[in-house]
Every structure is written in structure tokens, then in C-alpha cells.
Write a structure and sequence with these properties.
The protein is 45% helix and 0% strand. By secondary structure, the chain is mainly α. Bound molecules: iron/sulfur cluster (SF4). Iron/sulfur cluster binds at residues 3, 5-6, 9, 11, 30-31, 37, 40, 42-43, 59.
Length: 66
């Protein structure tokens, strides 16, 4: 089962063209399995703070230039 947020995750909706190449890498590493998605910094942020993380926060916890 994939991450339950895969259809609504703002991270993938706001990625600029230059990041499209690495997008698949993030998806494979974090989003395709429920277990892997538990390591996603975006998901951890949401649980910890009760609100969505900034759109430019990567699943690894870095912030992309926008
Ligand atoms: S980036 Fe994180 S929260 Fe978003 S779909 Fe992937 S695993 Fe889920």
C-alpha cells in the first residue's frame, strides 16, 4: 500500500521542472510503501505539528529553493 497522502501531497504538486528528474527517486524511496512513508519528514511533521509542512519540504527533511 502506498502512502495515504500520495494523491494530495503538496510537495509533488509544487515541484518545479528542474526537480522532475529526481521526483521518481523520492517516490520510490518514500511514497510507494506505507512502511517507508513513515520515515518521510513531511509525514512526521504533519503528525508532530498537526498541520501540513511547508510545500517545499522534501521527504528527507531538506527545503528546496522555490
Ligand atoms: S512525500 Fe511523504 S507525505 Fe508525501 S506522499 Fe510521499 S511519503 Fe507521503
Amino acid at each position: 500500500m502506498t502512502c495515504e497522502r500520495i494523491g494530495v501531497c503538496e510537495f509533488f504538486q509544487t515541484l518545479t521542472e528542474e526537480y522532475q528528474v529526481v521526483k521518481q527517486g523520492w517516490i520510490v524511496r518514500y511514497c510507494l510503501s506505507k512502511k517507508d512513508s513513515e520515515r518521510c519528514a513531511r509525514k512526521i511533521f504533519l503528525k508532530a505539528h498537526g498541520r501540513r509542512p511547508p510545500a517545499n519540504m522534501t521527504p528527507g527533511g531538506d527545503f528546496l529553493e522555490t
